[in-house]
From TrEMBL:
Family matches, as InterPro entries: HSDL2, NAD(P)-bd_dom_sf, SDR_fam
Record-linked Pfam families: adh_short (PF00106)
Phylogenetic placement of the source organism: Eukaryota, Metazoa, Chordata, Craniata, Vertebrata
UniProt source species: Scyliorhinus torazame
GO cellular component terms listed in the entry, alphabetical order: mitochondrion
Name of the featured protein: Uncharacterized protein
Length: 93
């Protein structure tokens, strides 16, 4: 379960499931919970990865935001959120 601004929702995935599968296949993984809009959190995750593995060979950024309303019905607040996560967050990572 996760919560944001008083709304609860069930997450369909679990970062530890992927971690367990990667390690069961003989790989190494470092699951990180990072708000991709937060440069400091991204920097800390990169530092942890470099400290743990000596560098980064692959990054899986599964963060995204979508709003399924029409253009005229989508507030700029929602557009800003989607752009900050989908474009800026991807660029930062």
């Amino acid at each position: 379960m996760a919560s944001t601004r008083g709304h609860s929702f069930k997450l369909r995935g679990d970062r530890y499931r992927t971690d367990v599968k990667v390690e069961a296949a003989g790989g190494k993984a470092l699951p990180c919970v990072v708000d991709v809009r937060n440069e400091q959190q991204i920097s800390e995750a990169v530092e942890n990865a470099v400290k743990t593995f000596g560098g980064i060979d692959i990054l899986i950024n599964n963060a995204s935001a979508i709003n399924l309303t029409g253009t005229l019905d989508t507030s700029m607040k929602k557009v800003d959120l989607m752009m900050n996560i989908n474009a800026r967050g991807t660029y930062l990572t």
